[in-house]
Amino acid sequence: MQVQFDLTPDDYYAFLRFQVPRDPQMRALHRRLPLLVLQIGAVGAIALGVISYLKAGPRYSPLVRGVTGALSGLSFVLVIGILYLFLFLRVKARGGFAEMHVAAQRRAIERGQFQMAFGHHLIEIGPEGYMESNADGQALQVWDRVVNVFETPAHIFLFKSVNVAYIVPKRAFPDPAAIAQFLAEVAGHRAAAGAPQ
To answer: In 10 A of CB 130, how many CB atoms?
Structure first.
């Protein structure tokens, strides 16, 4: 089966919006970031508290030095908390990490980067793999190296790794039956090749 289409930056942005929230590294960052901020706040608070306690010197009572150290430490935690909240609200206001990534890639594309990825593409499905052809050349991707296949309302993504996929826009197909045939052929060839399901 052959499918021809023109790949656009919007197709790439749709892929990023799909992939970035599923990226294991991004999910790990989301889980670890609050703990990391808490650890930085705690270490900074202790360090600043100890420095303030020692800097106050013997001319003040231990109680005054302790209160000064504790207030210095708490002020550090407050500043770190405000910075974290500012960063969290900024990321949220920009649509999350996926939209920030899309915006960064859009700027790169506007500067002329990644232009070889866009334009006319041809994908040929066969028993050994799929041949992708574009202005940059041809490449055969064998089925046992296709780690996953995802379908969205507008695209089919043939993942070559956790973060890299071949993008096939559904507009390249004449009707839903052709999309179903394409997906069935891909699934059949992947199963025959022993690719992960």
So the answer is: 22
Tokens of 86: 């500012």
User: Mean pLDDT over residues 80-104, rounded?
Assistant: 72
DSSP symbol at 138: E
Residue range 183-187: average pLDDT? 92
End-to-end CA, the chain: 21
Residue range 8-67, pLDDT digits in tens: 989 988 888 888 777 767 667 667 777 777 777 777 777 777 777 777 777 777 777 777
- Give the closest residue to 6 by CA, choosing from 90, 162, 108, 121: 121
Per-position DSSP letters for 94-128, written without gaps between them = TTHHHHHHHHHHHHHHHTTTTGGGSEEEEEEE-SS
Contact between 151 and 135 under an 8 Å Cβ cutoff? The reply is no
For residue 157, the SS3 value is strand
Bridge-partner residues for 5, per DSSP?
Answer: 121
What Rg do the C-alpha atoms of the chain give, in angstroms?
A: 26
- Please give the Cα distance from 162 to 47 (Å, whole number): 40
Helix axes 96-110, 9-19, angle to 10 degrees: 150
